[in-house]
Amino acid sequence: MESVQGIAVSPGIVIGPAFVIGEVEEHVPHRSVPPRERAAEVVRLDDALAAALAELRELRDRTARELGDEAAKIFEFHVGLLQDPSLLGPIRARIREEGVNAEVAVADRFRMLIQQFEALGSEVFRQKANDVIDLDRRILGKLMGGTSSRLARLKAQAVLVAHELTPSEAAAIDRERILAFATDLGGRTGHTSIVARALGLPAVVGCTRLSQRVEDGDLVIVDGDSGTVILRPDADTVQAYRELDRRKRQYRASLRADAAMKAETRDGTAITLLGNIEFPDEIPAVLANGGAGVGLYRTEFLFLTSPTEPLEDDHYAAYRRAIELLGGRPLTIRTLDLGADKYTQLRAEEPERNPFLGLRSIRYCLQNQPLFKTQLRAILRASVHGPVKVMFPLVSTVMELRQARMILNDVIEELEEEGVPFRADLPIGMMIEVPSAALMSKAFAREVSFFSIGTNDLIQYVLAVDRGNERVAPLYSGANPAVLQLVKSVVRSARRESIDVSICGELAGEPLYAMLLIGMGLRSLSMTPGQIPEIKKIVRLVDLEQCERLARRVGSFESERQVLNALRDELRAIAPDSTGGWTAE
Ligand code: PEP
Ligand code: MG
């Protein structure tokens, strides 16, 4: 038995057999091939070799064009090796005669060759050994396919243990077969984690090298509340986790039973609790959890789950469905936030060096106006069916906001000319998730009708800590006084200009922060649907004065530790059975 501590990102406990998708070179699947399937296995190998060869030739030619023949020579060795019968013959023979699968036959043969080169000792041969390693990875990559094609091979129910999952891979997970996942990489507010919460799929990320420590079929426990993953647990541990799971389910069920109650503090201050969604299908969960509407619709997931670019009517159909499911409750549609970790295969153009500081979100839309206009047309058309607002993400300068508005105005004029109905007074808002926008919030507040504070990005940009990087996860904290000061100043600017302000980062759904956010003046919180009942419970247990007192006290602190201690003490005092701190005994 072995226990690995990762980052808890989506609650729930699952006990099941592992299905491992490690890094290609580190997790070669072993399979024995029955005699009648061996010829097909050799064909599979030859297809992979042919694809790798074509890729290498293309690379060689491109290098020759761009850097000259001398530089292209490095690929000659690769190309030659891939056609060498003395290397490939024994690989094919092992498949035919011993029935090993192509991946194993390739990995074993290449490992032998690498060892031979390394044993020769000189720098030249060490370089050759590196070339062979590179080639080995390339062929194994072809044989094993991407994560999605490997996942397609999973037949029974399992816990997915992966080196890394992209948000679109997570969104495509088949809930019938994958019961939970745990990954080596990732952080709590990375979009893969957000998708796990949206799907209600228990998940732990940031479990360094987990995928190398597990084999397919090993029993694992994923505890999405504490972030613990247990490998090959003994019977007593399995029993203890079953019991813990039962208690937690009972607690969550009791919270949901009160979901329909009003979200107001003991002294009668109304707090609007809304849901964050990636797909319209999540709206029934928002309502079942007692949400009053949708405060953030991440529309880019329409792109991430589709092999082709959505057309205007695809956008329109999704928005209209969301509006209908909400039955008159409010819907804030955020325009496309593509880029950074949210790229479809289709749009994976030249990789950027610093994608989170690159062409993402509103910047991407402003540079790709046809795509932006397509979405804006659909939002405007859908706006006649219900109370819709539109919101621009990642705005960092006033000029950017004005540009986005100008494009929206162009679209409005087009619709007017075409006689297409839309809501003329569509409220336009922006997210505050870049420090420059928070610092200039007074100026922005004069230009929009609402703000929504996106703490997921705001924290990473204020603290210079990648939200998806497990190595710096302990530095990523909403309790940092610099973050809290900015949030407070944004709320103040909004109040001065009498515009609405809400918060839609993951902080809004963290029980620990609920009192503080209310005390800072927020009256609208938008979160993962499953978090609404617990936040509502806290709202109903506190009064405004208590929250404001806490916010004043926290405002005087200079360290994150002081803030966290104060928040923990306060939460423990008002809601001792809140989910943090439960352990298996
Ligand atoms: C945020 O940054 O807080 C936010 C809500 O947007 P996203 O998580 O989609 O980047
Ligand atoms: Mg964001």
Q: Could you describe the 3D structure shown?
A:
The protein is α/β, with parallel strands linked by helices and about 575 residues long. The chain contains 24 helices and 16 strands. It has an eight-stranded mixed β-sheet. The chain has an eight-stranded parallel β-sheet with strand order 15-14-13-12-11-10-9-16. Strand 9, helix 11 and strand 10 form a beta-alpha-beta unit. The mean pLDDT is about 90.
| Shape call | globular
At the fold tier of CATH, the topology name of the largest domain is TIM Barrel
CATH superfamily of the largest domain: Phosphoenolpyruvate-binding domains
Mean pLDDT: 91
Key terms for this structure?
binds magnesium ion, binds phosphoenolpyruvate, 24 helices, TIM Barrel, eight-stranded mixed sheet, eight-stranded parallel sheet, alpha/beta, Enzyme I, Chain A, domain 2, Glucose Oxidase, domain 1
Q: What is this entry, summarized?
A:
The chain is an alpha/beta fold. It contains 24 helices and 16 strands.
Q: What is the fold's blueprint, element by element?
A:
Blueprint: E1 2-5, E2 7-10, E3 13-21, H1 38-67, H2 69-81, H3 85-98, H4 102-119, H5 123-144, H6 147-152, E4 158-162, H7 167-171, E5 178-183, H8 191-199, E6 203-205, H9 210-213, E7 219-223, E8 228-231, H10 235-257, E9 272-277, H11 283-288, E10 294-298, H12 301-304, H13 312-326, E11 331-334, H14 362-367, H15 369-382, E12 388-392, H16 398-418, E13 428-432, H17 435-439, H18 441-445, E14 450-453, H19 455-463, H20 481-496, E15 500-503, H21 511-519, E16 524-527, H22 532-541, H23 544-555, H24 560-574
Parallel strand pairs: 3-4, 4-5, 5-6, 9-10, 9-16, 10-11, 11-12, 12-13, 13-14, 14-15
Antiparallel strand pairs: 1-8, 2-6, 3-7, 7-8
Helix pairs in contact: 1-2, 1-5, 3-4, 4-5, 13-15, 15-16, 21-23, 21-24
The structure holds phosphoenolpyruvate and magnesium ion.
